[in-house]
Amino acid sequence: MTTQKKRPLYIRYAGPVLLETPLLNKGSAFTVAEKQAFNLEGLLPATIETINEQAQRAYQQFSQFNNDLDKHIYLRNIQDTNETLYFKLITSHLEEMMPIIYTPTVGLACQKFSQIYRRKRGLFVSYPDRDRIDDMLQNATKQNVKVIVVTDSERILGLGDQGIGGMGIPIGKLALYSACGGISPAYTLPVVLDVGTNNQELLNDPMYMGWREKRVSGEEYFQFVDEFIQAVVRRWPKALIQFEDFAQANATPLLKKYQDELCCFNDDIQGTAAVTVGTLLAACHAQGTKLRDHRVVFVGAGSAGCGIAEQIVAHMRDEGLDEAEAISQIYLTSSKGLLTDDMSVRDFQQKFVKSKAEVAQWSSDGQSITLLDLVRESKPTILIGVSGVAGLISEEVVKTMFASCPKPIILPLSNPTSKVEALPEDVIRWTNGQAIVATGSPFDVVNYEGKKYPIAQCNNSYIFPGVGLGVIASGARRVTEEMFMTSSEALAECSPLVKGESQHLLPALSDIREVSRYIAIQVGLKAMEQGVATKVEPEVLERAVDKNFWLPEYREYRRTSF
Ligand SMILES: NC(=O)c1ccc[n+]([C@@H]2O[C@H](COP(=O)([O-])OP(=O)(O)OC[C@H]3O[C@@H](n4cnc5c(N)ncnc54)[C@H](O)[C@@H]3O)[C@@H](O)[C@H]2O)c1
Ligand SMILES: O=C(O)C[C@H](O)C(=O)O
Ligand SMILES: [Mg+2]
Predict the structure, then answer these.
(1) How many whole angstroms from 321 Cα to the centroid of ligand 3?
(2) ipTM of the prediction
(3) Is the same domain home to 74 and 138?
(4) Is 559 inside a domain boundary?
(5) Beta partners for residue 190, in sequence order
(6) What does the alpha-carbon distance between residue 188 and residue 190 come to, in Å, rounded to a whole number?
(7) pLDDT (tens place) for every residue of the chain, 562 residues total
(8) What atom in ligand 2 is closest to the CA of residue 156?
(9) What's the gap in Å between 439 CA and the centre of ligand 1?
């Protein structure tokens, strides 16, 4: 990545207001000349520090907290007072701090959102204020918004309905847009749509800060979301909108409604599919297999499960199977067992249901076909957990799979850590060290019989920052399925295992910015090929990626004349 000296910024704030503006505040790094020009004399200690010195102090303070939620609160406080320093700090310690600002700690921060609330960040768009959404967007502290992450908080990770507490997720995702995808925090806006909550604990909690009503649903809900979307289109017509952590019943309908009309995507459906297929492509490469050689069982048939299944089908087709053959190798289970044609299922699950007549004899109790029945009978080579339920991938399930598959690929992807379908160390032990394992939340290396097994974090955070950068740099007006497929392939190409560099399935976090840049260029090229980009020259795209890649360094300030 090339770094260029940035032009000075012309600033119209001064004095305490400048110090209270997180995008502009430099704290002890204001120079003598700036202190004079911006009425800061006397407001700061005498020593002028570099951003590295500031980050050193902040890291020392961070290290003094001994629980992750306190560390999270501390980092969020830096983010709300000095965004440049925040990104300097977290990008210098990404491996240590990503689990604090993002999954899994962000889950707890969402659950405790009203209790730990400190300062404003993002937009709270509440249902009772629905006739004033345009005004709210005018109030946003960011004027030139390029990426919005929006949630209605109904399915926060595997933790269910968190009311306005779900705001923690858009904040965390957008922090990664800047830290991993180089998108300036000046361009990002986290939004929570407050349509009430069905979480009775929150409704009973006197501290709860959201609209204290049951969730709005049905037509009124979709109309409200549409009012928000149309207001965004009026204010920032080119902004990329990422839908995040919507419940299963709304996630797919919203995506279908808007994906051909706006520049938008659903991260849980499409981002998750892309990172999972990227991980599977890397695993296949390690085994010398193709995706089309595999039989895949899903534990969970919701947004993530069906999104991944669709993209696996698309890749199997690219590898020569026809659609029906590809679908026949994929099995989805919900809490009622294998999806079969005698069940009532959602539209997006329909194509994956199996004929009950053909599989009825698989059932051991003559009724539903449980996960164990399915694994015993279908003999999968890949098992993917996206249920949000801890422990579903049991010892018996794994050992049954292993009995007919000597090199199983097992991905317990549910977040946060407390919801993981199986612990990696157990899976490694139950398969005598033969399984390839990746999880959604971060896990330590597993030591088994003297050997070390690194556990890849198969999380959509490997995908959305690069996709976002590619969309911005190419000026894409839509985010297509093919752009996501390209992002999976680009991620797999960056796998250290594929490159023969190490046993790691996915790249190290220390390389994530280079990986995002590579994904961005491939995604931008795909957008051009498909005619949805405004830039059309590959060299122009590469330059735009580098030009858009924001790095956390202070810029020189000059005073605007009023
Ligand atoms: N690693 C990642 O990047 C990533 C991305 C997206 C989602 N996820 C995780 O995946 C989980 C599910 O997300 P989603 O958006 O698909 O949710 P969802 O609510 O749309 O789907 C959950 C599915 O699990 C099924 N389920 C519930 N109990 C079950 C049981 N006992 N047996 C089998 N299936 C059961 C439900 O029927 C449903 O089909 C969450 O925990 C989320 O954190 C991880
Ligand atoms: O937020 C994450 O860590 C991944 C994913 O979007 C999820 O909902 O679990
Ligand atoms: Mg999510």
Answers:
(1) 30
(2) 0.99
(3) no
(4) no
(5) 149
(6) 7
(7) 555 567 899 999 999 999 999 999 999 999 999 999 999 999 999 999 999 999 999 999 999 999 999 999 999 999 999 999 999 999 999 999 999 999 999 999 999 999 999 999 999 999 999 999 999 999 998 889 999 999 999 999 999 999 999 999 999 999 999 999 999 999 999 999 999 999 999 999 999 999 999 999 999 999 999 999 999 999 999 999 999 999 999 999 999 999 999 999 999 999 999 999 999 999 999 999 999 999 999 999 999 999 999 999 999 999 999 999 999 999 999 999 999 999 999 999 999 999 999 999 999 998 899 999 999 999 999 999 999 999 999 999 999 999 999 999 999 999 999 999 999 999 999 999 999 999 999 999 999 999 999 999 999 999 999 999 999 999 999 999 999 999 999 999 999 999 999 999 999 999 999 999 999 999 999 999 999 999 778 898 999 999 889 999 999 999 887 5
(8) 8
(9) 13
Among 204, 235, 262, the domain boundary falls at: 262
In sequence order, what are the residues at sequence separation of 6 or more whose Cβ sits closer than 8 angstroms to the Cβ of residue 111? Answer: 159, 162, 165
**Is the same domain home to 448 and 488?**
no
Residue 6 DSSP class: P
Identify the CA nearest to 184 among candidates 555, 557, 549, 556: 549
Q: State the CATH number of the domain containing residue 41.
A: 1.20.1370.30
Range of the domain at 494: 476-548
Give yes or no: residues 183 and 317 share one domain: no
Do residues 54 and 168 share a domain?
no
Within-domain flag for 556? no
Q: Determine how many CB atoms are found less than 10 A away from the CB of residue 295.
A: 15
Same domain, 371 and 451: yes
Based on the domain organization, do 285 and 434 belong to the same domain?
yes
Q: Looking at the structure, do residues 107 and 222 belong to the same domain, yes or no?
A: yes
* Contact yes or no for 402/417 (Cβ under 8 A): no
Is residue 439 within 6 Å of ligand 1 at its C-beta?
A: no
187 tagged catalytic? no
What tokens appear for 342 in the block?
Answer: 């005698």
Concerning whether 356 is annotated as a catalytic residue, the answer is no
